[in-house]
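[job 4471] stage=fold_predict status=RUNNING
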Amino acid sequence: SKVAPVSLELERFKSEQLNEAEISLHLTDSQENELSSLLYEHREAFASDKEPLGEIIDHEADIILNIERPYPPLLRRPSYPASPKSRKALEIHMKELLDLGVIRKVGHNEEVEITTPVIVAWHNGKSKIVGDFIALNTYTVPDRYPIPKIQISFTQRSQEVYITTMDAHQGFHKNVVTPRARK
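[job 4471] inference complete, writing structure tokens
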């Protein structure tokens, strides 16, 4: 009896990529297989041992400003003051984002028209960087997919078969922006 190649790939995916996932013990074998197949089908969207961020395919975000050049000074903000501990943490986070290709260094001859200051937030001894996008959001055309109100989300999801949770620590970086928005 031949085993389909997809079946072998799915089994390898389950053993290599889902081995640390906490899947509910209340699922039947059929439900667990259905969930594994769904995750396998959309595997590019998730981080893995080979791709630390994952990527949402065919969904580039376009950031469109509702103003023209020259941009107001509010969009070119200096860095916030930081303690030595926070500056060190910021350096580590920035290096990680550079290594992952999420951000890039700006060349000496490049003009930077918009800057977004960041702060280092601490929780349980761990640091993360948080961008201050308030000024930028003021001058941005609203997204076609606004964040829904939580009550609406719960109501819409009340009949769902599966509801998942995930650590969204780096989820923001999965949103690829258009080349125009990168400028």
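[job 4471] summary: DSSP finds six helices and two strands in the chain.
[job 4471] exit 0
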